[in-house]
Amino acid sequence: MKSEVTMTRRLFHTIYVRIQTFLGLALDIHSRGRYPSYMLSNFYPHEFVFDGVKSGSMEGFLQAIKTPDLKRQEMVCALSRREAKLRSTDTWKKEQNVYWRGRTYNRHGNHFQFLLRRAYRAMSAQCPKFREALAASGHRRLFHTIGKSDPRDTILTESELTAILTELREQQIKK
Hints:
Layout: H1 4-22, E1 26-28, E2 48-50, E3 53-55, H2 58-64, H3 70-77, H4 81-86, H5 92-95, E4 97-100, E5 103-106, H6 110-126, H7 128-136, E6 141-143, H8 158-174
């Protein structure tokens, strides 16, 4: 159960983001948000191939890495949206390890962060609509208020998602 302090912080964070969004200074990424918000969500069905495996969405990839079973990874990876989330498992939380193509990654390690960035770069390279949505976010600060903040409890925190998207946007602008 969340503590009252944590819940209060989340509430103030959400209010802050809503004000910033209203002022045009921020974008809160959400699958039910307005353009370009929903297209930057992991649930959007941007199909891409990563390390030879077809992904129906970034959510498919993120849920697939929760299991060491290669066949199950491929099956979950090919799914998009909630289908992928419903087929995933939370057993990774016990040892804080995730898996990709026969390799184990510590959820809190640099190799895991590199894996995430490689997957996002692959999606970005293969999905023009994703790149257009990222460009349409302009210079607004990115948030994902429905995302969790504790890396022990989620495969991708709000800060990880927004940092990766901001990095991709900055690289895109430099091109």
